[in-house]
Amino acid sequence: MRFKDVFSIIGPVMVGPSSSHTAGAVRIGRVARQLLGCMPEQAIITFYGSFAETYSGHGTDLAIIGGLLDFDTDDERIQNAFTEAEQSGLHFELRQSTLMSPHPNFVEITASVGGRDITVSGASIGGGNIKIHSINSFAVSCTGYYPTLVITHDDQVGILASITRAVSSAGLNIGFMNVDRKERNGSAMTVIECDKRPGDEVLETLSLLPHISRVSVIDLN
Amino acid sequence: MRFSTLKDIVEICQVESLTIAELMIAEQAKETGESPEEIVNQMTAYYQVMKEAVSKGLESNTSSRSGLVGGDGRKVNELITSFEPSVGVWAAKAMAYALAVSEVNASMGRIVATPTAGSCGIIPGVFVSAQERFGWEDEKLVHGLFSSGAIGYVIANNSFISGAEGGCQAEVGSAIGMAAGALVELRGGTPEQAVHAVGLALKNTLGLICDPVAGLVEVPCIVRNGLGAVNALAAADMALAGVRSVIPSDEVIGVMLEVGSKMPGEHRETALGGLAQTPTGRKLTEQIKATKSPS
Question: DSSP code of A9?
């Protein structure tokens, strides 16, 4: 099911004008912010499809920046997101692409801080709901409905077993999970949607496991 | 969720003597692991946002960022005091409130997407006016939102709710169906009658294109919200009178998927067709582009 529950239909509470162009965009921006783990210094935002055509009138640009500032969909500061960004030291560049995209409302965000960066692409599928398509060129499929673990690791025998063991030992149920790798024995990404937010302890356990390079959490609730 | 179609909903409700709202609350609790009270509290907070949006839309300046629209909800609401509305006072109220909320949305104010922001006026328009009319407590309306949510959940997962995917039938049409079905239940109708209301409503928005001028959620979206609220009342009345959707409502949802999928891109929120490409639509688009400060 694309839509998981009653609040994906009634909700979110948001500032207008468009759940696809504004609320969904805030959420994709927030995903990028949370994966980076802190306030970005730079962001390059590329709009595709309907986003590229109408982002300005819908405030999609304000919404993405608001998300990068970690604002929620109903944060009234979204209207002043550019000023807020300036005050926070976030410089950004907006681009429009005429290339085809997997969905009419699609955006790619590269956010960076101190030489480290993250690139996220995602679609706004309606009613403020989103689908993240890729993270750092790994194909993923997650929605932000659930607290989500994003783990970058080596493609090695047994690594998934050690990840899922750590997650289950922490009492976390795995709702959905997907894995992508760049190449055999290369780098890989595992995305795990959990029923509740992973605590600091499990994050630490995971990050100390061999062959794991980065552990992040997306939590839009 | 234990249901994926409207037929499932009716069957479960009949077998277990539940209202659609009760079924949705129980299923949501199971899905999230939260208690029914927590879930109802969240929806209660959402209903307060809807009521605030109605008040804000009627009382304050709702000029949109483009300057194209604003103040129409207030105009209709004020006219009711001095003029006998052709649709009757209460339908005119529902219409005024729906316009008001939709205008708050266009001005980047706070609303609840029901199911989308482009269609956010219809459910508050129907619900808040019905609450005034019948003197219902908030709690009853909050339950009604769960009925709307269950209906929307089925529509969203079997067809679509966004204009970009399925045209305006998917946004405004879904909202009308959700409001109509919930209103039937709020007024004492059976789950079966509520589901007929959904079909009756949806059938009459099939083919409705999404053609916003300059791509903005303003023209014709706001007016479609106002008229949508009235359609929802009418569909609810028909269903309560015993009118059935001869084509079962689930099949109507399937048709919406078919029609929406076949709609040309020009008519799916791209602003490349329909009202957006009329001479006036194009002129307004140029004006907005010219006057807007670069962002």
Answer: T
Nearest CA in chain A to B214: A54
Distances (CA, A) of A25 to A56, A67, A70, B16: 12, 7, 12, 40
Does A7 contact B at CB distance below 8 Å? yes
Q: Among A171, A158, A150, which Cα is nearest to A32's?
A: A150
Which whole-number Å values give the CA distances from B285 to A170, B29, B97, B279, in the listed order? 55, 46, 27, 10
Please write the tens of the pLDDT for every residue from A87-140.
999 999 999 999 999 998 999 999 999 999 999 999 998 899 999 999 999 999
DSSP B206-245: TT--B--GGG-SSTTHHHHHHHHHHHHHHHHHHHHTT---
Which chain A positions have a beta carbon within 8 Å of B33's beta carbon?
Answer: 195-196
Residue B140 corresponds to which amino acid?
A: K
Q: What is the pTM of this model?
A: 0.93
Domains, chain A, ordered by start: 9-136 (3.30.1330.90), 148-218 (3.30.70.260)
Neighbours of B258 (CB within 10 A): 12
Cross-chain Cβ contact B111/A16 below 8 Å:
yes
Nearest to A127 among B32, B162, B218 (CB): B162
CATH architecture of B6-289: Orthogonal Bundle (1.10)
**Count of helix runs (H) and strand runs (E) in chain B:** 14, 1
Calpha distance A11→A6 (Å, rounded): 8
Model ipTM value: 0.95
Decide if A78 and B108 are in contact by the 8 Å CB cutoff.
yes
Q: Where are the domains of chain B?
A: 6-289
Crossing angle of helices B249-262 and B6-16, in 10° steps, is: 160
